[in-house]
Amino acid sequence: MENVDYMKLVYQFHKDMLANRFTLVYEGEITHQITKAFTSLTENKMDSYSEDASMKRKVFHVMVECLQNLSKHAEDYKVLNGKGYSGEGIFIIGRTGDNNEDYHILTGNIIQTSKVPDMEAFLERINQLDKNGLKELFKKQMREGSLTEKGGAGLGLIDIARKTGSKLEYNFIRIDDKNSFYTLRTTIIRNQHI
Amino acid sequence: MEVIKITGTDDTPNVILDAEKGIIEFSGRSLPEDVLSFYGPVLQWIEEYIQSPNQKTEINIKLDYFNTASSKVILDILIYFETIAKQDKEVIVHWFYQEEDEDMEEAGEEYAEIVDVKFEMHVY
């Protein structure tokens, strides 16, 4: 990018964030420390306008699972000092709904193009299940799965779908033969009876 | 066996493992950076405990939050106790949840469905 007017760009970013009701946008390395910092920042913010306890719990839960997915599954993850993982990605949380009553969390990261079909099939499978189906899948995965060396249990996405009661929105953009960009949007709807 | 007491942090739970009293307890929050390295020593202790368990073991789970990786470890822990419950040892899981925390209540009910151990639900 040449001849960029950075002063205008900053103002444009500011306007875009407000227009899209994004309250936190981050691009870069996602570590456990970042996960803790973002969740506590969001909790404090929700406390400042006395957000409902159940909404707070759901937002916290979905944030942790989304951030841990990024730190563990993003294609270019690194092992940090022998323990812990970090991955590169984009993380966004914002308000949505007609009266800002709902929240959504958006993530994006690079995955291997060869892994896209399996990932897509898994997301589709989750989206086809109802409340009871999700519960059974969660229980089955918990019983039959085992923790990977990275500490993943394969439960995060199923759990997000259960806790939010909303369908997972996702997209894969092919970058080249090797890499694709995976985006996920999860919406936490107020008073969702699930 | 040595009594293990681990003080919780903002991402790891308080843990009490007391063989003499037959009490196993987890409280607080569980979303450790590395679930295997945090729970590894706990699982090791439990493996040893079930070799010669007390006549009665009480497991108190009073977590206000746990991530999905921890939920898998909790199941693994409960399954250890299922084996001794089958050997005529008394095992009771006291599952605590906050009044309006339906997710936590439901999580307890699900474990009770999966594992063949006596559960008592408590609101706190």
Summarize this structure briefly:
With 194 residues, chain A is an alpha+beta fold. Chain A has helices spanning 6-19, 32-48, 53-73, 116-128, 131-144, 156-164, and strands at residues 22-30, 78-79, 85-96, 102-112, 169-174, 179-188. The radius of gyration of chain B is 14 Å and the shape is globular.
Provide structural commentary:
- The complex is a heterodimer of chains A (194) and B (124).
- Chain A has a single domain, classed as Histidine kinase-like ATPase, C-terminal domain (Heat Shock Protein 90), CATH 3.30.565.10.
- Helices cover 45% and strands 26% of the residues of chain A.
- Chain A is built from six helices and six strands.
- Chain A has helices at residues 6-19, 32-48, 53-73, 116-128, 131-144, 156-164; strands at residues 22-30, 78-79, 85-96, 102-112, 169-174, 179-188.
- Chain A is globular.
- Helices cover 37% and strands 33% of the residues of chain B.
- Chain B contains three helices and six strands; from the N terminus they run E-E-E-H-E-H-E-H-E.
- In chain B, strand 4 (56-66), helix 2 and strand 5 form a beta-alpha-beta unit.
- The model of chain B has no long low-confidence stretch (mean pLDDT 95).
- The chains are: A alpha+beta (194), B alpha/beta (124).
- The A-B interface holds A 32, 35-36, 40, 53-54, 57-58, 60-61, 64-65, 68, 83-84, 135, 138-139, 142-143, 145-147, 149, 151-153, 155-156, 159, 163 and B 10-11, 31, 33-37, 65, 67-69, 71-73, 75, 100-103, 110, 113-114.
